[in-house]
Amino acid sequence: MKDLVSIITPCYNSAEFIEETIQSVLNQTYQNWEWLITDDLSKDNTVEIIQKYNDPRIKLQVLDQNGGAGNARNNSLERAAGRYIAFLDSDDFWYPEYLETMTDYMVENRAELVYCNYSRCNEQLQPVLKDFLADKVVTFSNLLKTCRLAPVSTMYDTQRVGKFLFPVKSKREDHVMWLNLLKVIPEGMPINKTLAKYRMRENSVSRKKKNIIKDQYLVYKDFMGFSTIKSLYYTANWAVNGFLKYSKIFN
């Protein structure tokens, strides 16, 4: 029997998009999964929509108070029982072969972490940028300068590396978590195939690069323990790469 995949999803006020996300999971060709959804005290009908799906693999927990995406992901991770950890935010989308392609690659290549191409889309899931390409082996060193790993397109093997939680005091929790993981393993392997869609919402924090320079600096200064000069150096690299990553949006 194929190994269990634990899908980690935080959600907050996701009623507009959650049904598309749910369908993308139910349509997976790889069916041995559990889906740990943690609702961060949504104020809309997100929870009611999720509860309509009578599938025992969907395991919803609603928090008593809002704690942010990192805290919600940690709640799901602590409940996860699968060998493989996959991340899917409540407004993103997987192609049907996502889980099968990712797990097959990990088994065949004894990979500890893999990531794939993903489409960068607007709120209607129509492309607004060229696909982000998984075309480089990821290491701790090159991940310092730009974060090539996105939750929607990355999977790791807990049997090989254990579980990695998100820092709840950082607004750049994804990047910190990936860096901590890449301290333990030598590399993450690319799958140059588009298997996911990342929804670039107008109010997305990740789109407001100018507002998170300080938060990115703290990734290096506080969480990596770098000197001020070294932290500024990597922040500058990240800012330049971030501008290049998102500067060519077309209508």
TrEMBL record:
Keywords carried by this UniProt record: Transferase
Transferase as UniProt keyword: yes
GO function term, MF aspect, one: transferase activity
Domain of life: Bacteria
Pfam family name, one: Glycos_transf_2
Domain (Glycosyltransferase 2-like): residue spans on this chain: 6-123
UniProt name for this protein: Glycosyl transferase family 2
